[in-house]
Design a protein that fits this description.
With 446 residues, the chain is α/β, with parallel strands linked by helices. The protein has one domain. It has twelve helices and 15 strands. Strands 1, 5, 6, 7, 8, 9, 10, 11, 12 and 15 form a ten-stranded mixed beta sheet that branches. The chain has a three-stranded antiparallel beta sheet with strand order 2-4-3. Strands 13-14 form a two-stranded antiparallel sheet. β7 and β8 form a beta hairpin. α1 crosses α8, α3 crosses α10 and α9 packs parallel to α10. The longest helix has 25 residues. The protein is globular and about 70 Å long.
Length: 446
């Protein structure tokens, strides 16, 4: 069987739950897709201190901010001003090293979604302090809150992530794709874990191939031919057959991806030579040859590290935000270069925000935080939601400078899923806590 025929058959069988893992055929479907859309999740591992990424510039609000942040406060005159199209009466600025973010925002390619975090239901400070509300378990814990953001699990045990559930739900409509809907540059994640769909992982140069079978390896061609013969023999044991299927698909995917990447002309857009820059660059290169993969919907997962700023925040965070801004700007420029600026939406997630108080050299684990969404389909140059009061023991501080979210991670995910093509009737499957909120769409996507 030719590679493309095999991959089409594999995709069709996976859509029916016959390969790729246990699962049920989705109860509802959207219409088949004739257009293309892509989500790119940049997960800021460690918990980004977004209250130093976006800062109030108005005198009264800045004074409150500076008193709370103490030695971590950014000088008022150093902030990069932004001019949102919507206004709550205050002025805002970005961290002085976030010039890439400022440029994206001012050109309308970036929106800021304020004070988002895991919530099971709308929660006030009084609700929290009086114990009269349901809360996500293990708040302020790295692993647990990464899990909450990526799975939207609430208090239930979920083995799938919301990107994985999207892939399962759309599997029949996307059965003709030659690559899985979910692709990671950062290994396996809960975000892309699914019941019936299998994500695929690439490295900074493309698909990882079997080292022993590479053409440059001694007897590589012969070894591969022998291995493929073994895989094609057929096995009586169901587990052996499944393993052979995995190996066969892996070989076919690697060939397809790496051969397609040879067709990519050199991008004119220069990416920062950093960990995040290299990962966004390979995503841009894969998107440039998306037609080779016959795809209509894709979700990419990328991690950026270093955001757990308990120590050395004044030294480390400027470089983190410089890299984040420059990389997101380069990626958006590359999308325009290949003509996909309106079809690709990039968004951030992070473990949690940081608390408002300084621990002397950094910040500790918080809760609510601002997130970034960029792309041509984003209703940019706006700040969505209610900005918190950055005051210790103020109306938004539930304890020790931890700011309570006013918008939920479920609402954030549902807004992105709606743009991606998930029907309203299926949003609760993607974001299980969404029914608790009156506002199901935060409005930042066209």
């Amino acid at each position: 069987m030719h590679r493309r025929d095999f991959l089409k058959l594999s995709a069709a069988l996976s859509a029916l739950g016959l390969i790729g893992g246990p699962g049920m055929i989705p109860a509802a479907r959207s219409a088949d897709f004739s257009d293309y859309k892509c989500l790119v999740n940049v997960f800021l591992l460690g918990g980004n201190d977004s209250f130093n990424m976006l800062v109030p510039r108005s005198d009264a609000e800045y004074s409150i901010y500076a008193a709370s942040r103490q030695n971590l406060a950014i000088p008022q005159g150093d902030l990069l001003p932004i001019s949102p199209l919507n206004s709550d009466g205050s002025l805002y600025g970005l961290h002085p090293m976030a010039s890439g973010l400022q440029s994206l925002f001012e050109t309308g390619d970036l929106a800021i979604v304020s004070n988002v975090g895991p919530l099971l239901e709308p929660t006030s400070k009084d609700d929290y302090l009086n114990g009269t509300t349901n809360l996500p378990p293990q708040l302020f814990s790295h692993n647990d809150q990464q899990n909450q953001w990526q799975s939207l699990r609430g208090t239930h045990s979920l083995s799938t992530g919301w990107a994985g559930r999207i892939a399962d739900l759309l599997a029949e409509d996307l059965s003709g794709q030659l690559l899985p809907t979910n692709i990671s540059t950062s290994g396996n994640s809960r975000f892309q874990a699914a019941e019936t769909s299998s994500p695929y992982t690439v490295n900074n140069n493309g698909a990882s191939s079997y080292a022993a079978f590479r053409r440059g390896a001694e007897f590589g061609v012969e070894r591969r031919a022998s291995f493929e013969q073994q895989l094609a023999n057929g096995y009586g044991n169901i587990h052996s057959r499944a393993l052979a299927e995995v190996h066969t698909r892996s070989l076919q995917y690697a060939d397809l991806v790496n051969e397609a990447l040879t067709l990519v002309p050199e991008l004119n857009t220069a990416f920062p030579d950093t960990r995040l820059g290299r990962r966004l660059r390979i995503v841009a290169r894969l998107l440039a040859v998306k037609d080779e993969f016959e795809v209509n919907r894709q979700i990419f997962y990328i991690t950026a590290i270093g955001f757990d700023t308990h120590d050395n925040q004044n030294q480390d965070q400027p470089n983190l935000l410089l890299d984040l801004g420059d990389c997101l700007q380069a990626f958006q420029t590359a999308m325009a270069e290949i003509g996909l600026e309106n079809q690709v939406t990039t968004f951030t997630q992070s473990d949690f925000g940081r608390n408002l108080t300084s621990n002397g050299d950094g910040t500790d684990h918080g809760w609510g935080a601002h997130q970034l969404v960029s792309g041509g389909a984003v209703m940019g140059r706006q700040i969505y939601g209610t900005m918190p009061v950055l005051e210790i023991d103020g109306p938004d501080d539930v304890a020790g400078g931890r700011v309570i979210p006013t918008q939920s991670a479920d609402q954030y995910a549902a807004t992105l899923a709606t743009w991606f093509g998930i029907p309203e009737s299926n949003l609760n499957e993607i974001a299980p806590s969404l029914p608790a909120f009156n506002l199901r769409n935060l409005g930042f996507m066209t």
